[in-house]
Amino acid sequence: MSLEELIESATELIVRSRHMIALTGAGVSAESGIPTFRGPNGLWRKFKPEELATPEAFRRNPRLVWEWYAWRIGLVLKATPNPAHYALAELEKLGILKCLITQNVDDLHERAGSRSVVHFHGEILFARCTSCGFRLKWSEPPSEIPPRCPKCGSLLRPDVVWFGEPIPEEALRRALHEASRADVILVVGTSGVVQPAGSIPYIVKEHGGTVIEVNVEESAITPVADVFLRGKAGEVLPKLVTAVKRKLGKRGKE
Ligand code: NAD
Ligand code: ZN
Fold first, then answer.
1. Which atom of ligand 1 is nearest to the CA of 217?
2. Fewer Cβ within 10 Å of end Cβ, the chain: N or C?
3. Model pTM above 0.90
4. Whose CA is nearest to atom 9 of ligand 1?
């Protein structure tokens, strides 16, 4: 089937859905200039995740880990949402998309207008104190590396989930609840290999839901995808939203 025909199938599923959710990964922000970890041009081609995004790495070398995060914080602050972020925000405004679970630590979904966002892996623009829990938001990358808590002087850490760390309780609870009631999940730009996030589409499937996937290449989610839309998120999602609006318009006249 051509991409146009596949978009038509996905559109039909979307307009018929009663509770559609989305799961996004680093691929959604790739076209905003924020590198992914895996896939074409992934970050990990240059760095190993185990060397930087773990509690052990931070204990061993907080300066190295913070240098890497300060660089990524700078990228996020400079980046702007791309058509993929806007398309997802529009699906929410249309009343179709009920919840967006993101593995991304950037804030581009919110800046594009999405409101119902679950940050499964935390938020890179926030730091928290390793001893008193004080939390702050960066409006520019930290100048002192590693940065210290303004309240107690202890080390700050990025407020993200590192490999080997548990998912924040509330985010996990909401994501599992949404996955168990969703009849359609739109999965965009994730390799699906980071767990437990990668299980979310499988949970939807086990509950009888349908999986629509958008990715430039096949992923660990593709085996359960009912419709696989191959292409860049920033190109495929706007086409999908246009098709959904056209179909909704026709329905309105029926
Ligand atoms: P990943 O790096 O493992 O996978 C990225 C996926 O996106 C790949 O499957 C790739 O084929 C696909 N992709 C690349 N460009 C695309 C495009 N233009 N359109 C559609 N798909 C595209 O990312 P992940 O699955 O999110 O998991 C890795 C972890 O990386 C997450 O925990 C996340 O916190 C972290 N991360 C976040 C960001 C961010 O916040 N922007 C960036 C890098 C990594
Ligand atoms: Zn403190």
1. 11
2. C
3. yes
4. 191
**What would the pLDDT profile of 199-243 be if each residue is shown by its tens digit?**
999 999 999 999 999 999 999 999 999 999 999 999 999 999 999
User: In the chain, what percentage of residues exceed pLDDT 90?
Assistant: 90
Neighbours of ion ligand 2 (CB under 5 A): 129, 132, 134, 149, 151-152, 154
- Which of 37, 75, 78, 236 is the best mutation target for the ligand 1 pocket, counting ligand atoms within 8 Å of the beta carbon and taking the most? 37
Each residue of 113-168: pLDDT tens digit? Answer: 999 999 999 999 999 999 999 999 999 999 999 999 999 999 999 999 999 999 99
Burial pattern 192-209, b for ≥16 Cβ within 10 A else e, equals bebeebbbbbbbbbeeeb
Q: Which ligand is nearest to the CA of 134?
A: 2
Q: Beta strands of the chain (E only): which ranges?
A: 20-24, 97-102, 117-119, 122-129, 135-137, 156-160, 184-188, 210-215, 227-230
Question: Is 201 near ligand 1, meaning CB less than 6 Å away?
Answer: no
Q: Among residues 84, 94, 139, 129, which one has the least CA distance to residue 247?
A: 94
What is the CA 245 to chain-centroid distance, rounded?
Answer: 24
Residues that are catalytic: 121
